[in-house]
Structures are given as C-alpha cells and as structure tokens.
Specification:
The chain has 230 residues and is of the alpha/beta class. It has six helices and seven strands, in the order βαβαβαβαββααβ. α1 links the parallel β1 and β2. α2 runs antiparallel to α5. The chain starts with 10 loop residues before the first strand and ends in a 5-residue tail after the last strand.
C-alpha cells in the first residue's frame, strides 16, 4: 500500500480530460496532498460540454464547478486547455501533447496523476498517451499514476484489458472532502446506484480500502517511477 508522504515540498499535477474526472479519480488523494502542504495543480484538457450537450453556457458552468471543487480539495490552481470535448481522438496528437507538456514544463511536478488506458472513453485514452509523452524520462517527473473514473473505467467490457490497480492511497480522513467536492459538480452528479453518486463514491472507496487493509482508499496503476535510491 502506498500513501502520500508529507516530507519535503512537492508539486503535484492531476491531468483530467473533462471537468469532474480529477475528483472522481483522485479527489481524496489530492486533498491529502494539499493537507500535507504540497502544491497541487489540476489541468482540465477539454471544455467538457459542447459535444455532449446543446448548450454552450454549460462550458462556463462547468468551469465554475471545477474551480469550486478545487477549493474544496485545497488545490492551488486549476488550468483549462479548452480542447474540444469528446473529440481528443480527432485532435492531432501533437496538439494534445502540447497542452500537457506546457503544464509539466511550467509547474515542474514530481508526481502526475492521469487517466488509465483501460478505458471506454476515447478522450481518456488519448490523454493517457499524451501524458506519457509529457512525462517522458528527462521531464523531471518522478512518478506517474493512472486513476480510475467511475462510469468509464468500470464500463470497459468484453475481453478488453480491465483497470488493474497496484497502488492504493489511504483516504480514510479525506473521503468526506472528496464527496463534498464532487457535490460542487451539480451538472454531473447522479442518483444512486449510478457510479457518479455520493453513495457509490463512498462504496467504491470502502471496497478499495478493504483490498488495501484500510477504511477507505483510492486505487491507481503505477505507470512509471524514477528513483535515485532503492
């Protein structure tokens, strides 16, 4: 089981395709980083609305919700890439790369959280690939972790590879912060038993916690780690 160290100053970047991915996947962990005194940044790469809803005013609403969520979690700053929602697989790969690379170069994070490639959502898979480019060896990033997104990662079916976590962060003391932060996304919350409901988020955290021997946890897949010592 892996936790979040409070030793030293650290900078953390959470990369999300859409508003709410960051809190669904790593909200408790980001809150834990913030409480440890780490500098936490969130990058939302798309505007998150226009391809799903026929109402461009939702772009502004989701931006407000993202910022409110970030305040709840203790995030230092939120950044928006404004690429087209649900179309990252159509955007030239180099353009998606550039959005993530700019954030990595500007904020120099040691730890990056991003989407898994074990996904039903094409935007998520595209962003995973771009994160690999932006955090390649020599970028200064020491650790890259992929998170799961309820209603996306867990809907990958058939014989496709499924999300397989191998890192767990104890968020027992930060689960309430995660659920309360997600509640700021009024446009995204659903009624139980939908995965994007407060009850489902708590149930998932309890299940992941049971797998790790703690009260509540968030699960990640380790993508890359660079160590100076063993």
């Amino acid at each position: 089981m892996s936790g979040v160290s409070s030793a030293g100053e650290r900078t953390v970047l959470a990369v999300a395709a859409h508003p709410d991915d960051e809190v669904l996947g790593a909200g408790g962990t980001l809150s834990k980083h913030a409480d440890a005194g780490h500098e936490v940044h969130v990058l939302v790469v798309t505007e998150g609305a226009t391809q799903q809803y026929d109402d461009e005013s939702l772009v502004a609403q989701k931006r407000r919700e993202t910022e409110a969520c970030a305040r709840r979690l203790g995030v230092s700053e939120v950044h928006f890439g404004d690429l087209p929602d649900m179309r990252l697989d159509d955007v030239p790969h180099v353009e998606v790369n550039a959005v993530v690379e700019e954030a990595v170069e500007q904020y120099r994070p040691e730890v990056v959280y991003t989407h898994s490639d074990r996904e039903v959502n094409a935007d998520h898979r595209a962003l995973y690939d771009s994160t690999l480019v932006a955090t390649r060896p020599g970028s200064g990033v020491e650790r890259v972790l992929a998170y799961e997104v309820p209603s996306s990662t867990d809907w990958t079916g058939g014989d496709r590879p499924q999300f397989a976590p191998n890192v767990y962060v104890d968020v027992s003391d930060h689960l309430d912060a995660k659920v309360e932060a997600f509640a700021e996304y009024e446009s995204e919350t659903r009624e139980f038993p939908h995965p994007r409901s407060a009850e489902s988020l708590r149930a998932r955290a309890r299940t992941r916690g049971a797998a790790a021997g703690v009260e509540a946890a968030e699960a990640f897949s380790l993508v890359r780690e660079v160590r100076e010592s063993v």
